[in-house]
Design goal:
heterodimer, A: 365 residues, alpha+beta, six-stranded mixed sheet, 8 helices, 24% helix, elongated, B: 314 residues, mainly alpha, MetI-like fold, 2 domains, 14 helices, 0% strand, flat
């Protein structure tokens, strides 16, 4: 049976539509009060997984437990979940108040209890002045707040969010993101949140599950995901601008392991390997743009010469693209530091923050 | 300064250029009213309109003439003496078979056929369209395909079996039988219409309603129905005009007492005994055609909107 501290447990879940397999023997445990983000590009099965948890899709195989109750065959309404959709899915012909009360009325709840719950949800989300309006008269942010309210009044154990912010403009998105985080901190409910936006995932999540073709690639807290990606896919998916990848092989120079690419060697001193660094092994070195030191930042470690190819000033940061040993590498430096195209730069990798992947399996070593 | 005058001269030159620019083309480009294109378009449209309106004009003027005037044969000339006698006769006195109470009997028969047929067929088709769009069940696609194939089979093929079936059930010749027949034959096109419309509504609304705990009928009645007024208007128009104009089922599945208006009109116009009363025939035809015509005029705009809405997704 499942561990008592788990709010949602998924056991061996598979789902296929005809010949297309969307989810494959998926296992996932979500702790009570945890904020879990399912992250992946479109078509990776993250929304399908959420719909399975909600009971809107029937799995081909496997089990789903919510609060230690096997809900695999239960109707969505009996699972103790509330769901917020990307397109808000507010009933257009009903006022905000009716939208919030619809589910409660269907469940046959007494009127005074309904009023009490609506008042509470409206208070939390600050939508009291909107209660008598129809959805068409609301802005995108207000609509999404009402949609969250609809999940809130149901007083459920688990909140499911299906890309709730994707239809909003950038400014509203970051505002509502903070609000969702605040909501989680005050309600302490379990929340499962599907998104393709890595910023949302990194800022909101207690743990992130990165998915690809129906399989969870890595399930960890945001910092671990960012700094210790389990494989090359996770490393490339997370981070913007994305990680630099250099293909090469392992070697030994003076009894110390080095990474060799196109004749240039980089010392691997400081890298915490999980496997022995056997010379001759074909590998991919991944370094994030902010983990590369340039000129003045260097403090006596190994450094190499590179030529500035392109400069992309982004305000707070300045992204420079450098040519090094046949590779083009992006480096993030302070916004005030500017370089001319063609200038010569000294750079060194921070190997404590780098990642090495096997060239064949693409797993971290 | 020494070159103030030169500056002034340049200034004047610039001003001159400015006025020239200002006088150039600006805003909407003027269009000629009597261009060759316009003449062609309006000419052809006018001719087409005339072609269709002329028979209607002949019908209206003939129905307002007395028989002596009709016999003169000037079908295009307006009536010299307007009389509503033919209209009264067509409505209340014309004889078909043994009944001599005019088209009024057929009119009320048609109403009695129309109202339940429209209500039942739309109710059944909207629910099946909703089920096919939102509650996919095993074989629902096959079921839908079979239903659509039904729309392509000529009605005439099925008349004889239907007559026998209705006879065996014991409702042949009654209005109930005809209502059932109209409902069945309205199903393919109406179900297609409703299925496509419901499939076009956001799927997430349906999901949200399911999470809210609403069942099949609650989602249909409280979420889907209030959002589908346009498609209901389209369905009503299609069914009202279709059933009102129906002749074949009317003549096959009813008795002379319960003949719909179209069948009665045919019997009045095609009677071979006595004088051909063209004015009465014209009035009777106009009366019969009035209902669909009024429906189109009243709801034309809603109709177009609904058709467009229903056609978006397949």
């Amino acid at each position: 049976m499942t561990d008592l501290s788990n709010s949602v447990s998924i056991r061996d879940l598979s789902l296929s539509f005809g010949a297309v397999t969307v989810l494959q023997n998926l296992d996932l445990d979500i702790k009570d009060g945890e904020f879990l983000v399912l992250l992946g590009s479109s078509g990776c099965g993250k929304s399908t997984l959420l719909n399975c948890i909600a009971g809107l899709l029937e799995p081909t195989d496997g089990q789903i437990f919510i609060k230690d109750r096997n809900v695999t065959w239960e109707e969505p309404k009996d699972r103790g979940i509330g769901m917020v959709f990307q397109s808000y899915a507010l009933y257009p012909q009903m006022t905000v108040e009716k939208n919030l009360s619809f589910g409660l009325k269907v469940a046959g709840m007494p009127k005074d209890e309904i009023a009490k719950r609506i008042a509470r949800a409206a208070g939390i989300l600050q939508i009291e002045p909107l209660l008598q309006r129809k959805p068409a008269a609301l802005s995108g942010g207000q609509r999404q707040r009402v949609a969250i309210g609809r999940a809130l009044v149901r007083d459920v154990d688990v909140f499911l969010f299906d890309e709730p912010l994707s239809n909003l403009d950038a400014k509203l998105r970051s505002e509502l993101r903070v609000e969702i985080k605040r909501l989680h901190q005050s309600l302490k409910n379990t929340m499962i949140y599907v998104t393709h936006d890595q910023i949302e995932a990194l800022t909101l999540a207690d743990r992130i599950a990165i998915m690809k073709s129906g399989v969870i690639q890595q399930l960890d807290d945001p910092i671990t995901i960012y700094n210790r990606p389990k494989n090359k896919f996770v490393a490339g998916f997370i981070g913007s601008p994305s990680m630099n990848f250099l293909t090469g092989e392992l070697a030994e120079e003076g009894g110390r392991p080095v990474f060799k690419t196109n004749g240039t060697s980089f010392s691997l001193a400081g890298y915490e390997a999980t496997e022995p660094l056997t010379p001759g092994r074909k590998v991919v070195l991944g370094v994030r743009p902010e983990h590369i030191k340039v000129d003045g930042d260097l403090s006596g470690e190994e450094a190499h010469d590179a030529i500035v190819d392109i400069e992309e000033p982004m305000g707070a940061d300045n992204l420079i693209w450098l040519k090094l040993a046949g590779h083009t590498i992006s480096v993030r430096i302070g916004g005030a530091r500017r370089y001319k195209v063609g200038a010569k730069v000294r750079l060194g990798f921070d190997m404590t923050m780098a990642s090495l992947f096997d060239a064949g399996t693409e797993e971290r070593i | 300064m020494a070159n103030v005058s030169t500056l002034n001269a340049t200034g004047a030159a610039i001003d001159a250029v400015r006025t020239e620019i200002a006088a150039g083309p600006r805003g909407k480009k003027p269009k000629k009213v009597l261009s060759g294109r316009n003449v062609m378009i309006y000419g052809i449209l006018g001719l087409a309109a005339l072609y269709y309106l002329l028979p209607l004009y002949v019908m209206v003027v003939t129905s307002l003439k007395g028989m002596p005037e009709v016999r003169l044969g000037n079908i295009f000339s307006p009536p010299m003496e307007i009389t509503f006698e033919p209209w009264v006769k067509a409505w209340a006195e014309a004889c078909t078979g043994l009944n001599c109470d005019g088209l009024s009997r057929g009119f009320w028969n048609s109403v009695r056929i129309l109202v339940p047929s429209v209500i039942v067929s739309i109710a059944v088709a909207s629910v099946s369209g909703y089920a096919l769009a939102n509650w996919r069940f095993k074989g629902s696609e096959l079921f839908f395909s079979v239903l659509i194939i039904g729309a392509f089979i000529p009605y005439q093929v099925m008349i004889y079996p239907l007559v026998i079936i209705l006879r065996e059930i014991g409702i042949y010749g009654s209005l109930t039988g005809l209502v059932i027949v109209h409902t069945i034959f309205g199903m393919p096109i109406l179900t297609l219409l409703f299925r496509n419309y419901f499939a076009g509504l956001p799927e997430e609304l349906f999901k949200a309603a399911r999470i809210d705990g609403a069942g099949f009928w609650q989602i249909y009645g409280r979420i889907m129905l209030p959002m589908s007024l346009p498609i209901f208007v389209v369905a009503i128009i299609i069914q009202v005009t279709g059933i009102w104009n129906d002749f074949l089922f009317g003549v096959v599945f009813t008795r002379p007492d319960t003949y719909p208006m179209t069948v009665q009109l045919n019997n009045i116009v095609n009677s071979v005994q006595g004088v051909k009363e063209y004015n009465v025939n014209m009035a009777a035809t106009l009366l019969t055609g009035a209902v669909p015509l009024i429906v189109y005029f009243v709801s034309g705009r809603l109709f177009v909107r609904g058709i467009a809405a229903g056609a978006v997704k397949g």
